[in-house]
Fold this protein.
Amino acid sequence: MIELEKIENPAFLKNLKEPALSELAATIRSFLISEIAKTGGHLSSNLGIVELTIAIHKVFNSPKDKIIFDVGHQAYTHKILTGRAKEFPSLRQYNGLSGYLKRSESVHDCWEAGHSSTALSAMAGFELARKMTNSTGKTVAIIGDGSLNSGLSFEALNFLGHEPGIAPIIILNDNEMSISKNVGTLAKLLNSLRASRTYRKASSSKLIPRFFRDIKIRVGNMLRGFAKNLTIFDEFGLRYYGPIDGHNFKTLIHYLELVKQLNRPCVLHVVTKKGKGYPFAENDPYGMWHGVVPFDVETGLPLNKKAENIVSWSNIISDYVYQYAQTHDSFRVIIPAMINGSGLRRFQQDFPEKIIDVGICESFAVCMSAALSMENIQVFVPIYSSFLQRAYDQVIHDVARQHQHVIFGIDRAGLVGGDGETHQGLYDISYLRHIPEMEIVQPKDPFEAWQLLDYAFLVSTHPIAIRYSRQKLLFNPDALEDREPILAPSWTISRNGHKAILIAYGENVGRMERMLEKTTLDVKVVNARFIKPLDTKMLNGLLIEGLPIMVVEDVTEVGGLGSAILEYASGRPGFIPKISIHGLPDQFIEQGDNENIYQKYHLDDTFLIDRLKDLIEKNTQ
Ligand SMILES: Cc1ncc(C[n+]2csc(CCOP(=O)(O)OP(=O)(O)O)c2C)c(N)n1
């Protein structure tokens, strides 16, 4: 048996034949299950692509041939084959192995991602560069059927099929799932491609590209009086092969060798089973096993049981939305692909007509929401902070500029832990704050979340973003009954003090209160639940007090609340602000638990207390 920890690079695969290849696949599968059970990570997508990854590395020569994985969440087998099995115990942890591809980790990681649907554009760039420099080697992109849905993928297809002198090899890893069931017309087209023909097998007669096979069918059809189209890929100028069985080495290697010889753009349609080899994941229609926390392999249950009443922010928000939908007919949730992660499974089951999953199409979701809102349909768009980056222009150009009251639920705002750099929710305040009319709020606790949701749904007439993090917290829905409405943007004082002022929002309000409880510092804590607009009445008062002000936020310091306060103060002659901003620095922030990141970037209690003492001391000198 091959010891995975001893693999240094994929060269050993060249001499491996069946049944050794199948044995290797089985070893990798059980390694993945047992390692991911310990660390958490992406399970189903990785189990589905084991044979395909082995076969690609057997047929192609990385790094000379560039192998690009779309998203990169399914590249664990690639990591193992390129010498990283021994690092799996540190997967997704601080200073550990990334859960995605990382150019700094290996020469075999030629492209990094984390967000979906970049692979085909990357491949276009690599192929053009190859043409310009006359270099040899192939470019292979592995993209899932979910990620193919995105506009970005289609923009690349539009280019790839007609550009002369390039020969990209697109491998469509079709498991019928995005995170959950794939949606839309393309999913239907792939379904019918799968259903309308039996799998291509590795026999010589099947080597004829689908294009030629279809001509025969087409001529026959036309003779009978109706024309049958080629596949969508053929129409895009990409020669289509498939579908083939993505778990059969003989077929995989046969077809990969075939497309490797081609001198033109092509698509190899490979059908795989998401979660293969682990029954819980295989039989999961909802995508619950797509990304997992540590679990017990036998029972499939999470290792760390949640305490009672501990829920995610997503659940707190979606409970409100659920209740709102019960009494509001003309209301829709528009969601780009993240139903489970956004806590909206129950909503989808009970109000299927009120939630529209558009697939991994963030910019489309936001643009369409603007038009729905124009027609007096109230829209809630739950979206992860980092994925809303995809729809930045639509928020400005289509929603805000046209004065539409679309409500954004900005999930995973702030630090995101194991997903790291690509998924950090650190930029949304900066990229939303400068948009005219935009409102941005963040609650400190569930009670305030529902108050702010009332404000967003019932009071505000502007585009509004409610931020919430990936943390879990105590939630008692019964306590929400008698909540006071918030009728205008306002801050609150959550702790009194006379020597300095600490301004925070979201969970940092509670964290700062707890931090100060451990000291004798006489510091006021302000809950800046409206990040935009500022509560200028309160802010004026705070500035007049002349005390040192510390702003704490776990987003980038560039353009956050601290910047907003400084901008405001600089426009008020007479105020000499003593403002100290503590956020994350102007650099990409790595994966890791909040404690690690706080410590590294001086947002931990010890540092902040010292800094406060320093500010108070300087102010009294
Ligand atoms: C822009 C963006 N939106 C959403 C996501 C979240 N996400 C990660 S993987 C995934 C599903 C990808 O489906 P598919 O491409 O079919 O790959 P599979 O996991 O099925 O292999 C989604 C929605 C993301 N990574 N990037």
Q: What stands out?
A: Residues 217-228 have pLDDT under 50 and may be disordered.
